[in-house]
Amino acid sequence: MRVVIAEDAVLLRAGVIRLLADEDIETVAAVDNGDDLLVAVKEHRPDLAIVDVRMPPTFTDEGLRAALGAREAVPGLPVLVLSQYVEESYAVELLSGGAGGVGYLLKERVADVGDFLDAVKRVAGGGTAIDPDVIAQLMARGRKNPLDALTARESEVLGLMAQGLSNTAIANSLVVSHGAVEKHIGNIFSKLGLEASSVEHRRVRAVLTYLGR
Q1: Could you tell me if 157 and 104 lie in one domain?
Q2: What pTM, to 2 d.p., does this model score?
Q3: pLDDT in tens, 155-170
Q4: Residues 60 and 125 grouped into a single domain
């Protein structure tokens, strides 16, 4: 089996490559962003693409969008998505594509080597491997206030956004790094289902959602 991996966390990427190698699964390319994933998929035509959801530059949903693009470029390409969270905005589109194998696992499942390798082989063979927590959350979408999905820190960041603070000001207020604030905001956009728009700014839409709670 030949695999392409898209994962920006160096240690996790190296660990997955090692796990696959122990099963005689060849990693033909390992990249850290969505653009390079598309290039690698087109070049190598792998048996499976293992894709992280959040990668540079915004760490929101680049991986899922790249996965969808990869399946368009190589119809039927099996894709196994790894994420710390359930990214609803594109997950439904990916999982309902109906062509080739597809999987969506939370990263904590990778710790169970047997389950992870079973998912890899199943998806590469055209099957599915969907994390139970992913299924539960997707089934529950639309039945609750989207703000309920935010963590306490994400709610705090959104509250400061509503106050008109910049990312730098939020970072100073919470005594965290600028990068951490950007990641929290990316999580907020994703959990509120706010896709990029040339008409409405996602930041404004997030604040309006917060104020309308």
Answers
A1: no
A2: 0.63
A3: 899 988 887 788 998 9
A4: yes
